[in-house]
Amino acid sequence: MIRIVLAEDQKLLLGAIGALLDLDDDIEVVGRAGSGDEARELIESQSPDLVISDIEMPGMTGLELAEWLAQAQPGTRMLILTTFARPGYLRRALEAGVGGYLLKETPADKLADAVRRVHRGERVIAPELALTAFDARDPLTERERQVLRLAGEGISNAAIGRRLHLAEGTVRNYLSEAIGKLNADNRIEAFRIARDQGWL
Amino acid sequence: MIRIVLAEDQKLLLGAIGALLDLDDDIEVVGRAGSGDEARELIESQSPDLVISDIEMPGMTGLELAEWLAQAQPGTRMLILTTFARPGYLRRALEAGVGGYLLKETPADKLADAVRRVHRGERVIAPELALTAFDARDPLTERERQVLRLAGEGISNAAIGRRLHLAEGTVRNYLSEAIGKLNADNRIEAFRIARDQGWL
DNA sequence: AATACGGTATGACGATTGTCATGCGCCGGT
DNA sequence: ACCGGCGCATGACAATCGTCATACCGTATT
Questions:
Q1: Is CB count within 10 Å lower at the N or C end of chain A?
Q2: B187 near B152, Cβ under 8 Å?
Q3: Which structural domains are found in chain B, ordered by start?
Q4: What gap in Å lies between CA A39 and CA A101, rounded to an integer?
Q5: Which chain A residues contact residue B189 at CB under 8 A?
Q6: Does A83 contact B at CB distance below 8 Å?
């Protein structure tokens, strides 16, 4: 019997895949969490064999959860289940030692199989992603990421400077460097590129 | 027996809610589509009692599907199931005469109930949205929307002008008007506001 | 027919953004 | 101890963006 904790903030999907997995005789869902923080508590109390988690969730993200799990319960395996085919996400997940990384695009009938394989210690990666994994590394510095995140929300350089205690010119400079590194033409493009790579 | 066609591009969710609904004795899933176009074909061949559809899908969107359905098979009811709590989406859905509008945030066990109620002719709206429905109307003109969509992708005014056969100054003007109408400070904010309202 | 109005279109002008040269401090290699 | 490289920080200058005044054209109202 494979004991599983699920973490997924879309309640409908949480419930639906819970029901789906429970149909299998060798799988038992012992906890359902709507956030990363909830998931951590459930993992501590239930000590499951396997955790299935989304990435983008309120509070703790699935990637943070994976990193925490590798420290706290290295024996527990993890399967990431996300909408996003972002190379940076996959890289970070693999570096945290996850056993699997699937997209919500995957047909539902493949899920139980993936669960069993990860439980056995195999590594299961969404085929669309298997190649792109070790492409580009994030070339941005922490400052550049900070500034780019704010710029992407439509905040002006002056306001970003105030928020981060930098001169306006400095903000412009970081943005300019980020734009250059990402081969973009302006802040908006740079933001989209970095976000789509999973670097923000 | 309520005969249903499902349209949802996330295969995992498509399969999972399909399985969930099939557990109920009075509900039968007679078709599963991964796109709006596929859904339309299934509706034509199956003539279901009810269609459950996502909004953002490849090809035909759920809203276009709803508008088509109201013309083509006015007797068939429709339930929208989406991630997005965007007032403009809800408004357009209601104007197309849909029977329900739920979020994927909804707990899974409420779904079958909503299906039965919509089938009976009741109207089911996600409570988070019931209020916001008749708030703001889209104040943008078609030109303003076009320009804003492109600006949101990080394309420069000059390039937008070329794309739409407008002078650069004209593009700036439309953007300026959109920014003003939406009470934004710049193109990025304007884009986000319009998108989040479901106006793009 | 005259008028008002809203959408389309443009260019001038000031404001904001993007680029570049420059300097500082911290580390790792020699 | 010295250098080279890198991240951090800034201001001057150029390029792009945002605002405004203006104008044309349909169409709805009077």
A1: N
A2: yes
A3: 2-130 (3.40.50.2300), 142-197 (1.10.10.10)
A4: 18
A5: 153-154
A6: yes
